[in-house]
Amino acid sequence: MIKLVGVEKTLGGQPVLRGVDLDIPAGKLTTIIGGSGGGKSVLLKHVIGLMQPDRGEVWVDGIEISRLKGRALNDVRKKFAMLFQGAALFDSLTVFENVAFPLREKLRLAETEVARRVEEKLEQVGLSGMGHKFPAELSGGMKKRVGLARALVMEPEIILFDEPTTGLDPLMANTIHDLIVGMHRTFGFTAVMVSHEIPEIFLISDWVAMLKDGKIAAMAPSADFQKTTDPAIREFISVGSMASLKS
Q1: Is the pTM of this model over 0.70?
Q2: How are the residues of the chain apportioned to helix, strand and coil, as percentages rounded to the nearest 5?
Q3: Per-domain residue ranges for the chain?
Q4: Span 2-79+156-246: which CATH code?
Q5: pLDDT means per 10 residues in the chain (247 residues)?
Q6: 79 Cβ contact list (under 8 Å, min separation 6)
Q7: Across the chain, how many H-helices and E-strands are there?
């Protein structure tokens, strides 16, 4: 469903993506790992069309989007939703209004249908009856759940997850991972996740890719990825696993 071909991007005079080639399979949960500041979030922004590559192509469902603008780009973006690191909720809106926001912005629905869809998604993420609360009244994990409900409410074909467990303790991080996996199995969307949660991501991902030195150093099914003989990748996995145990 998603294909990047030779994608290059330089920011502030510093090469970030140096020729990324990546095929993301439809209907699977693919996780991209790599060092901090290595360009993982920049890669996600290219996938959804928030950034344009200096060179290369970005294909989504058979359409090359890297030079699209206006309505043509917006039509492709309708396939997407995104869960940001900090959930990116509107502080002045209630939980209900946050989840309803994309429905009201993009669709002309009766308020009864908006309410039905919002309450359904809140129930699915374990927040039934919480629609009246404001973001300031929520824990970090609850904010992530609201962000996920908002991502799901438009019933997208693709959901991008940018470090969805940042700032959460290990138990809550596992809860959010389990929720993402459950929603993925239920709705069958294509999921692309950027994460630093090693080794946990190997338990939830169908595919894992590693971004290293601005390129995809390896990509394989999760179980096979862990068997890599590449010393640099093995060291990254080992260090990440040790950090997880210490936390």
Answers
A1: yes
A2: 40, 25, 35
A3: 2-79+156-246, 90-155
A4: 3.40.50.300
A5: 96 96 97 92 94 96 93 92 86 96 90 96 95 95 93 95 89 92 94 91 95 95 91 84 54
A6: 60, 61, 156, 157, 158
A7: 9, 10
